[in-house]
Amino acid sequence: xxxxxxxxxxxxxxxxxxxxxxxxxxxxxxxxxxxxxxxxxxxxxxxxxxxxxxxxxxxxxxxxxxxxxxxxxxxxxxxxxxxxxxxxxxxxxxxxxxxxxxxxxxxxxxxxxxxxxxxxxxxxxxxxxxxxxxxxxxxxxxxxxxxxxxxxxxxxxxxxxxxxxxxxxxxxxxxxxxxxxxxxxxxxxxxxxxxxxxxxxxxxxxxxxxxxxxxxxxxxxxxxxxxxxxx
Length: 231
Description:
By secondary structure, this protein is an alpha/beta fold. It is built from six helices and twelve strands. The protein has a domain at about 20-145 and about 195-230: Vaccinia Virus protein VP39 (Rossmann fold, 3-Layer(aba) Sandwich).
């Protein structure tokens, strides 16, 4: 298990504390709509941190040529069950080098908020390494008050109550976040480290990786599109 991360509940738990069975159950949100509105139809798309394929499946159904990446073999097993024939790659995102580039690279699940500066820059460099010069990178980031408005909860369409229970400072600008997922017949928790990023810091880190913000894709600012910097 990655330092500062843990998970509880039935089934396999990934190194960052995610429960595979939980992510098999969660419903598709608005991500496919956001993505489809921001990129060309039928684009080649590299999905970094695909989890159990919750978003992979609807993207493939919409005609995107998806390559799904995750560091968990159990998550990728779930993806292949959900989307037979989809291309997958197993391994840490920060070290990924597939030797080819894509129209779209997607870094979702707030991965850009990793506590480790070096890991975040490696994630963004992976995005730049794999995106075509005329392509784009879609990044999901936390909302402005994501760490302050706690506790809070929402109901997932699959019938799960999702609670962000706490966001506790642990030093160096990092919070330890506790999330709880309640189904009528099951409960999972995940504890993970997250670093809030001011807009100027977020854009600076992208710039250091050779990317520049092109557009904000959602009203709450949680999805942005970036482009490779011009030479």
